[in-house]
Amino acid sequence: MAKNSVRQIYDKLGANYDRWTRVMDSSGINKFRKQLLERASGRVLEVAVGTGKNLQFYPPGCDLTGVDLSPRMLEVANERATQQKLPFTPQIGNVEALTFPNESFDTVVCTLGLCTFPHPEQAVSEMRRVCKPSGQLLFLEHTRPQNPWVAFALDKLERFTIPRLGCHAGRNTLESVRLSGVMVTEEVRRLGGLLFTLQATP
Asked: What is the pTM of this model?
């Protein structure tokens, strides 16, 4: 799906996105967010920041920048950061062509975004480029499960998820991370392999 189509989907969803994902968050996703993001430090870039659902989980001292294609989603994220009195800089942008110089950030974060990028390997390569050599990349994503029946069901579900959420439900996002060339330092498969958390260095 082209990035303009993804932008239109998420501009339309806006604050309603949180309502769409409330059940998923309460079923354990927020626990995984917290466990992953407590590792963040320094100057942090979160790509596909959306409505800022992760902001509450960053430890004190992080200087946060959030990039998203959707201006409406960024507005919600900025409102959330203001309410929480967090240092947050919103920026409209395309993760596949980030405008930041090389080695700009100590931590780069992506959660549940790789399923929406037209070229996920390129997106991860850009995250790697803007991360300092001593920095870290943190991922929480759903991926294609090894169970063929579940994978088949997700492929069928894409008829709903792609036009409504821009989500390629059956995409092997874990493979996209591996192909980008990052050095994986920790990888944990969750919920029967449907989700993973991953920490890597550039």
From this structure: 0.91
